[in-house]
Amino acid sequence: MGDLTNAAVDKLSPLKKLTNEQEKLVEDIINFTSEHLQKNFPAVYTIYGDAGTGKSVVLSQLFDRMQVAARRNKQSPFYGTKNYFLVNHPEILKVYREIAGQRPELYKKDFARPTSLINQLDKKQQKIDVAVIDEAHLLLSKADHYNNFYHDNQLVEIIKRAKVVIVVFDQYQVLRMKSLWTPERLEKITHQYPHKEYHLRHMFRMTASDDLVAWFNHFTSDYEVQPFPTNARTNYDFRVYDDAEAMRQAIVQRNNEVGLSRILSTSGYPSTLDGGKHYIREGKFKMPWDQYNYTVTPWAEITSTIDEVGSIYTCQGFDLNYTGIIIGPPISQVPGSNRLQINLDKYTDSEAFKKRADLTDPKEIKALEERMIMNSLNVLFKRGVYGTYLYAHDPLLRQTLRKLFSTAGFTIPQEG
Fold first, then answer.
1. pLDDT (mean) for 271-295
2. Helix 210-221 to helix 362-381 angle, to the nearest 10 degrees?
3. What Rg value do the Cα atoms of the chain yield, rounded?
4. Is 342 helix (H, G, I), strand (E, B) or coil?
5. Are 164 and 12 in contact (CB under 8 A)?
6. Which residues, in sequence order, are bridge partners of residue 3?
7. Phi then psi for 306, rounded to 5 degrees?
8. Which of 65, 47, 43 is nearest to 56 (CA)?
9. Which phi and psi angles does 373 have, rounded to 5°?
10. What burial class does residue 86 get, using C-beta atoms within 10 Å of its C-beta: 0-12 exposed, 13-18 middle, 19+ buried?
11. For labelling, which of 95, 185, 264, 334 has a CA lying 20 to 30 Å from the CA of 76?
């Protein structure tokens, strides 16, 4: 870990060296965009990829190169074009705007939330050339009057206002009904236009073995606890804890050593957007949820947040060095089996499951809500670059994880 850097701006920097695959992808998107800028109908390029597969790094480089050409190269088809980088996540937007402040070809105003851009273009009766959309799975797919979005779908509205739209998408990071997306729902829109797609599959973020990443995916996709792979701790600090407070102490120790180490949790504990502190309690463990971050610094880079529990809303899209993850009350084990059950009545994120007019089948709604709970856990599972520590609220699941950890030949840690 000699080259360890904790700044999110460094990890998303347009100066970061790309792999050959990523470089070819950037060139292909630039060629696709150049071709369709000359036409009078929209075109869409979609990049699919799981968490940690380098989607945002590709977009960062792509947009930087486009803006260099747009502002400096009179021979380029991009010269004089009006392009925007959109992300519907305030914490990630802070990082991109900080990057823009360091690059002469990038302006902070080039980076925006989708609703802000849509409303701004409508007010001025303008259109743009290129929209690059990070975390497209966070786009609203229904009206949200509270946040001043009065149309039915943000992607549809962006396509109406741009010549070329480039999106990155991960179906396993869909977390709220108002941003309900599936590959089918996405393609129903994108396939109306000239389109191209690419799938990024190599995991870059975590130093974990492919087998351990597959274990995380199986847990959240198939709702099943499997034996841990024997290489779960090869080049990776993977642990299972019996005691949430012992896990917290270990994370504090890692944070003192290398920084950027945090406790994270699923929903299922008291949480209200009222400005007050709401605590997660597990035995001797007691910590407050993350507070709304009014600063320009991402939540995980604020030193005091070692004393808070991060949620999907503060850690999604970010790298952490070590994570201590609490699998909360909504996820428990079915007695007498290795199956997991999802307890919707214990999910405390009231914003997640707002009703939609286009969903009326109770079975479909239940399946989607369960999927979003597991998606949120999958997001947490994919944060830790060098280590992931687990603690389960459900006693049976906690016992099973402990047993499987020991069976794989690993020792349950008692403290840091």
1. 85
2. 160
3. 22
4. strand
5. no
6. none
7. -65, -20
8. 47
9. -65, -45
10. buried
11. 95
Taking the CA of residue 160 as centre, how many other CA atoms within 13 Å lie in the half-sphere pointing to its CB?
15
Contacts of residue 261, defined as CB under 8 A and 6 or more positions apart, other chains included, come to 251, 252, 254, 255, 306, 320, 321, 322, 323, 324
The structure's pTM equals 0.92
Exposed / middle / buried, residue 34 (Cβ in 10 Å: 0-12, 13-18, 19+): middle
Residue 3 pLDDT = 45
Q: Coil, strand, or helix at residue 347?
A: coil
What's 340's DSSP letter?
E
Coil/strand/helix, residue 318: coil
The whole-angstrom separation of Cα 46 and Cα 382 is 22
173: left (phi over 0), alpha (psi -120 to 50) or beta: alpha
Find, among 267, 266, 402, 394, the residue nearest to 334 by Cα.
394
The token duo for 399 is 């016992």
pLDDT value, residue 2: 40
pLDDT of residue 274: 63
Rounded CA-CA distance 102/108 in Å is 10
Q: Which two tokens stand for residue 245?
A: 């407070």
Please state, in angstroms and rounded to a whole number, the distance separating the CA atoms of residues 141 and 354. Answer: 12
Phi-psi region of 317 (alpha: psi -120 to 50; beta: other; left: phi over 0): left
Contact (CB, 8 A) for 283 and 245: yes
Check: CB of residue 382 under 8 Å from CB of residue 49: no
- pLDDT tens, position by position, 199-227: 999 988 899 999 999 999 999 999 999 99
> Which residue bears the tokens 């089996």?
337
Cα–Cα dist 378/286, whole Å: 24
Q: Give the separation between CA 83 and CA 72, rounded to whole angstroms.
A: 14
- Alpha-carbon span 265 to 281, nearest angstrom: 11
Domains and CATH numbers, the chain: 8-200 (3.40.50.300), 210-407 (no CATH)
3-state secondary structure of 195: strand
